[in-house]
Each structure stands twice: as structure tokens, then as C-alpha cells.
Amino acid sequence: MLSYSAFLRRLICSFQMKQHQDVLTCSVLGIRPKVALEWRAVREDTPIDFTQHQFKETQLGDVYDISLTVNFDFTQTTQNKVTVECRAVGENAELFNLSMKVDLLFPNVLPTEQGSDTSTIAIIAVVVIMMMIIITAAVVILCRIRGKAERFIKHLKAKYEIFYDSVQPIPYIKDRMYCVDKVFVEGGIEYMTGISGGHAQWDKLSSYQEVVKGNCLKTKRQILEGEPGYGKSTLTLQLLYDWCKSLSKSPLRGVDVIVYLRLRQLERS
């Protein structure tokens, strides 16, 4: 029986790369008897397809030169290295046990585990950046709204200051004007508590602060009554003064905005 060397000269495998599709060529030179060749992936679960098989056989006397060229493509490339094998197959394959393995390297592809970790890190980074953008936008919007509210309140207080600093104790004499806090005196004013039997019910207003606290707040409107000069107009200005100055004892200290409307009585024609 002849040794393997008498049947086989050498096994040559060459690897060529093209732009879109890869080509593998496996050659066996000077072999007798002839064999068939096959390309396969070492791991069965490798997503690789071998196409366009080109089998070439050349006889030189009693020996053969055999080559197999295939194109290969991946359905998905998730590994940076794939091992493929060229081996002898057919009825004479067991005589030679010919096999050669080739590692296909893909430096631009990360391994599945590393790619998964990288994807997770990328997603977390994007989420963090989006959260920072949203928080920054919310802070900017809140600052703008707060800034507008503060400017509005500041404008209101400046307007109200003109009102409560221009109180005339004696009507129609404008050369002497005082702050309402200097001239306001309590007493003589009543407020309506309700209607019973078609008649209004009145009670004495012991303090101007009662208008904005206690039972008075249970109704949608307050009706005050008093003789001329008893301080009905200055009572409202006193409330504005307390709010603008943020007096600690005032029930209006925690109120954000007060809108003061001054009504004018028109005589009937």
C-alpha cells in the first residue's frame, strides 16, 4: 500500500477579498485518485452562505490538480472572526483526510457580546443626553415664566404704591396726600352676611382683615356699607398696602397676585 505522500503533493488554500462579495479558492495539486472538495463553516450555526461553486479539474498523467472556488456572503455579521474549512469529500476522501481551515477576520465588526454592551452604553448615553436636554429646556421655560411673573407682580406693586400713597383725608384737596397706613381708621363699616326673608343681614366689621379671612371667604363677593368718610375706599387701599409690603400679620402675605379695579360712579343723565 502506498503512503499518503505518494498520492498527495500538497494542499493549497488561497483567500481573496473583493469589495462586495468574498471569494475563497481551495486547490489540491498532484493527487491520485481524484477527490471532490467542499467549503463549509466549522460552526454549524455560522450565518454564512457559499454560492457560485466553480469546480476545476486538470489531469496531468496519472495525477490530478483540483480546485474549488466559491463566493461567500453573510446574512448577518456579528462576529469579528469566522473559521471556515476546505476538506476532501466523496468516495476517496477517507484515503487522505485532507482538511485546511481559514480564519476570516472582520476588524470593523465587534463580537456579539461586545456589540451588545456597546449598544447598551450608546442607548444609555442617548437617554442621559435627552434627559439633560429636557431638564435644561424645562428649567429655561420655568425661569422665563417665573421672570415674567415677577416682572408682572413688580409692575402691579409699583402701580398700587401710587394709589395707597395718594390718599386725601379731605376730598378734593390734593396738596396734602398721605400713605393709607397713616390715615386709615377702623370702625363704622358693616358687611352683608346674607339674605333672610328677602332682607339683607348685616354685621359689624371689626377689622379690615376680616374681609379676606374666616367666614367672609366662604362667599364669592363681599358687600360693604358705611357712611361717607368711614373708610370704605381706604379699606381696600389698606389691603393693597399690606400685600405690597408683605406684612407678617396680614392674611394676604401668601397671596401671589391681587387685581385691584377702581370703579367710578357715573351720574344718571
UniProtKB/TrEMBL annotation:
<feature type="transmembrane region" description="Helical">
    <location>
        <begin position="121"/>
        <end position="145"/>
    </location>
</feature>
<keyword id="KW-0812">Transmembrane</keyword>
<dbReference type="InterPro" id="IPR027417">
    <property type="entry name" value="P-loop_NTPase"/>
</dbReference>
<protein>
    <recommendedName>
        <fullName>NLR family CARD domain-containing protein 4</fullName>
    </recommendedName>
</protein>
<keyword id="KW-1133">Transmembrane helix</keyword>
<keyword id="KW-0472">Membrane</keyword>
